[in-house]
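ugh ok fine here u go
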Amino acid sequence: MNKTTNHLLASNRRLELCQFKTRPRTRSERDWSAPTMTKDWLAVHGLRAMHVTADDLKHVLRECESLKTANLQTMISALYEFEDRIHNLLLKVNRRMQWMLQGSRRVFGVQGARRLGLLIDASDKLLCSHLSGHLRRCLIQLLKDQIAPHTEVFYVATYGSTVTPLWEKPRKITPNVLLEAQHFFGVSMQNSGASNLMAGVKTMLRVGRLYNLDQVTVVVGSLPDQEYSQLREYVGQCDDKDSPMVWSFVCFDCRDERVSDILKRLTEINSSTFYLHCYTPQSNEGIRRSNEIQLLECELSEAKCLAEVVGKFRLELERGQTDSMGEVLGVPVLPPEDVDELVLCLIQGGTFRPETSKCWLSRHGLRAKKLDFFQMLTPHAYPQTSIFVDSIGREVTGKVYADTMIQVEWPNGTTKNVYLKLPILYDYQKKLTEHITLLEKRISWLKLGSRKVFGSLVEEHVVVLVDLSADNAPVLAQIKAFLKQLLEHQISKFVRFFNIIAVGGEVEPLFKSLSKVTAQSLQEAWKWVLAKGTAGTRNVMAALRLVNDMLNSTQFPSVGLYLLTTGSPNQETAQLTEYLEHLNVKISCSLHVAFFVPDFKCENDAVEAKIAESLSTIAHSTGGRFHWFTAHCLKTSDDVDLLMAELASSLRFSDENNKLIARLQQTTRKEGISFPCSASECGCEELRKPRTQRRHSIDFTTVPTTALVEGRKKSIRDRNALCAQNATKPKVKTKTKSFSETGLTRIPSLNIQLPIKEETISSKAWIRKYGLKSMRLRLNKLVSGTRCCHPTLQNATQTYSSALFPSVEPKEQLQHHHHSTPLELRNLIQSVNILMHRLTQRLNWLLLSPNAELGVVTERCAILVVDISGSMAPQLPRLKQRISTVIERQICKRHLVFNVIAFNDKILVWSASGPIKATKTASAEAISWVESLRAWSGTNTLDAMLEALEQAAIIARRRSVGIYLITDGCPDTSLARTKETIIQKYREIKAPHPITVNTILCGAKRDHLEEFLRTLSRFTKGRFHSADEERQTVSCTGDLAWAASQSDDTGIIVKEIKKCQQLLLRAHFYQSIPTIREGQ
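structure:
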């Protein structure tokens, strides 16, 4: 039986197995939504309950080996069945996770206990903040979604300075009890001072033991009054083994990291009865710090690993390649905890040598191979020659090379004449294509295996620092898999001495000093890694001190340190860099940092970018490399970034070379072609001659008379007499097809395409796309060609062209010949009128539309800096409406990243962690926060702008940032000092994406304040806007000066409207010139 038949039989067998497995699922198709704790749910529906663990996979693989030669079909069918069970589990876990992110479960977690107690934080800090209304709505939703359907006995209490229960004892769930609880959550619950969490836990513990409650949920939204040590001592008493009661701590949208840290440490006392649930309304990522979600993440990660391994191994069996039972396509078959030994015999040689991209490019880069575009052109380039001629008083440029060669602009701004042949450019393009292929191959090589995590190990002596802190418990298996790949693929082949140090709890090394790489030492290292667990925090400084103690400069002259971590170290960046400099004095070492972001991490882009910037600074301080990656992709790598920059340069050179080839081919096609209208017929031959030859008379009275001078005089007189005869000689009229030597560029008639809807771009960008220049509405090219002008002759009659076409003299001593048809002029006038009408619509939209009251947000990140000083009190209600409109209609609709900063004499920041993505929930929270602002006190503009620039500097690493300063008065500090400080801070920011400051003036205009705001926006390439209360419609013939003064956007539109008006006046003038027919 051949392989094709086996494959078909295997496919049929898989279909039968899938059909068999789908029949019993109808009985419990919603078993993923059972109202039980996730730990209990996994006990019924997890990997072990479904018998798809690593032990089960081992059993299947043993059967595969025993049946390998006997019955291949049975072996493939067994793997199909095992794979189907894994996919069934993945579906259930994914549905369970999505179900937990919906409704009140997203806020409080699963509350499915029969006898439930609820303790709510009623401190002033929570109930007097903007979160009060949101908390009340969430509690009412919890009552309807989970408590009413699943709970039998219910008890509610609040804690502040004192504990206030709703009822004296728990009540059975009835309609009256639910209505009473709903009224309490919505209206009656009042704030009560401080945050005495210990008193609330004490009350719930007493009630729970007295009335046998199954679960107590504690909602915490502010920092407790007690220290962690006091809470830990008392909460430890809640762990009663005789009558276990589940405690669920909910961190409700608390941006103070101390609260979540205290609750997390409390739940670590007993992970079987204490649970943590975190909630933030900005995104669904906050819930991923919860214990239940982390359990699902671990289950999902293990199931995915098994599914990937089984699928790849099954494909190997179907293809008949069953030799690699231990490893399939470089991925371990079993998780790290189930692999006892390293598979060193399967390591294959690499495609490239182990070296950094910087060293590799020094030998294989564009410069090294002399493939730089301008480096290739240099031997064939000639600079433009120019000389100053005293007799005519100006500089004269050589024309010979310019006519026979191609002009290319160099990077330094100079233009050179280049003489090349096509075979040279074709050969260069071929070499460039090979170089691009080599770069892509190396980039792919760097993204495979352990090089994706650690990069390429280039040192012979290596120390690996592994972050095994308590936060990495969910990803411990992944970290061990990374180390396994590193030991097998790089350390075993390229490193001579190595060591591994575990960072977490107590810093523990594998060996007392660096050990020589042997098969025995590698196996010993792997067993040591398998035995390690997670504990403590990221004490990187202690690990570096241990490295300092174990290294000897005489034995190890240079060492490479490789740090694998998932977060910021305990120490400050400055302390670590200073210690690394001290360490480099003793021994030459480079610290390479690998920053791993697990899937369950919930930090937003700004927090991750800040951590990455800190780790990158530490790595670069010692000349090391930085790698930032996730389980699915490589975000940033110094090695890859250098290659990507080289690849971008290669592609740019390829485009330049293709353009140069096209120009040479066009020049070749034009050789030997005669134009229908010669230069002499057009009267343009005199223009092409040097100026020294066009002069009619030269005064030689001051020149000494010699035989040479007399000969030159005679030659010049003869040439001038010949020119006069040619000018007065009558010419025979002949019809020509075109008037200029290069042919006229005719403008298409009525083909302009303008957008109907308004685009959210700046006026400068809008004019660049749809202005007069873009639409090619140019009167000069329609009226005359570039060579159809010549100086008027003093002692000569009109030339033939002047007799055939009407003439105008817009400049002295220069004639233009008007040869356009009336139809072309009418079409031009009609097109300009259409464009001017569309410009007027755009202008009125900028003046009157609610979307543009504070200007158009054009950047991908917007930071609104709002003045709430005392002078803003009259404008603040209207300003709140405008800000709400901007957030709702521009920022949220386009899913931008944003933040709001309010300032008077203090700075108030809506999102303390930095700009976040504009979801509907986040936008509603931001609008609610803006509505709660009150106007009072002074105007501290300087500190507010510095805070906005610090946030913008982090976000500008990934996207463009626009800061929108909204104010009505001068800052408390002087205008000059404020402007200088802001500009100095702006200059210090070095980011790949632009940061613009857009200023908005509210209230009455003041010249000095308006000048300050305009200067600030002009320096940062931003825009100025005036939020004027009196707005009116403007026509193209109306008060355009008022419209231009409203903002920079309107000023650019008004300027273009005036250009259209001037163009229409000129067109009407040319239209009024009578056409001289032939024979008149």
